[in-house]
Amino acid sequence: AEQERAAAEQAEKLAIERGWNRLLAACLAEQALVYLQQDYLQQGNLQQGNLQQGNLQKDNSDNVRLLLSELEQLAQAHSSCGVMLEINLYYTLTKSRLMLSQGNFAEAIDPLTLMIEQLEHRAWRYQAIPAILLLTQLYAASNKLPKAYACLHKAINIGTKGGLNKSFLDEGAPLINLIKSWLEQMYENELPADEMNFAEQLLLFTEPTNSLELDNVDDHSTAHALEGVALNITGKEKEILSLLSKGLTNKEIAHVLSISLGTVKWHLKNIYSKLGVTSRTEAIYESKELKVLE
User: Fold this and answer.
1) What is the pTM of this model?
2) Cβ-proximal residues to 211 (8 Å cutoff; 6+ apart), any chain
3) Quick one: which of 120, 141, 180, 269 is 20 to 30 A from 229 by CA?
């Protein structure tokens, strides 16, 4: 967080020196985002449906408000020029993020919705993604999941066409959690393969690879740990393991199971994580040892 904030501050100085007001607005908004994420994302205080008003530390809250004030002044100073909408976007995003952090969900939704409409009117679809993703989180925090999922699907549709995964990853853990729950529902519905792959790749970017830590434990503990892993392998993962053992490629597995190639890769990553392995050969060996495969 410190490195990100330092980089944004350095870019801010350059923007001021050169008179690049759009860059200046972007830097101010980025600094505010870092302050907010420092409290909520890194400490795990911001979770889907579990937003607590007043959790933001006082120093960070004051810093965000100062940055918001600078953005507001910048927007007012350029109210009649062509960069107005872009600067207003950064101001609206920052204000909405602060309101989300304080639990003022309803107050943030309407201004953000209006901003999205203005961006779409100008066909600025890619620029609208951060606002749509923030609106997704506001709806989720307000326990309006159908609206949250509709916004998320809209953003994924746009992001898929532009390959804009960074906009999604910048939102951090709360959005990733929403994508996971949304995908669980969408697996049961028809979704274009490119959109499914895009969403699954976002999860792959953020999913840590875990391994079994079985060193320095007795045989009894090891047996229970291995049993737990075996029981945690899902039916779909067993199907994929079975096909792996028969030598099928990822593409062939996708064809046999009528799922996307991205879905196969997503399941394989989960399988590797659960078994504590890094290759297909190791996965087959471990699954036979655990009696997952006969």
Assistant:
1) 0.66
2) 273, 276
3) 180
